[in-house]
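step: validate -> pass
step: tokenize input -> pass
step: predict -> running
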Amino acid sequence: MQKIGYERNKYDSCVYFKMLQSGEYIYLLLYVDDILIASKDKKEVCELKVLLNSEFEMKDLGDAKKILGMEIVRDRQAGTLSISQEGYLLKVLGDFGMDRAKTVNTPWGSILN
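step: predict -> pass
step: emit ->
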């Protein structure tokens, strides 16, 4: 990725980014064999996919709906994108037999006193 002009994020080595001529960015998130590409510039996304496909055998699964246990919900009309880990959390709770645990209220002391 660095050979084709992408910078590696200094805080997360799985994230690469590149500033485009328009001033927008394109991001590539890589984790083992999962790739997520994000940018406002669809042409750049398509070009990156073609380049990666020429180097690696890969499948384009279309718009991302889930990655690393996180569900991605997009509302194009509202221009929003949200990420939820509810499904992953419920799976972890189930793995430890906590999925049917009783809820309890946790008292909070006032932080202003």
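step: describe -> The beta strands are 7-8, 15-19, 25-31, 34-39, 66-67, 70-75, 80-84.
step: cleanup -> pass
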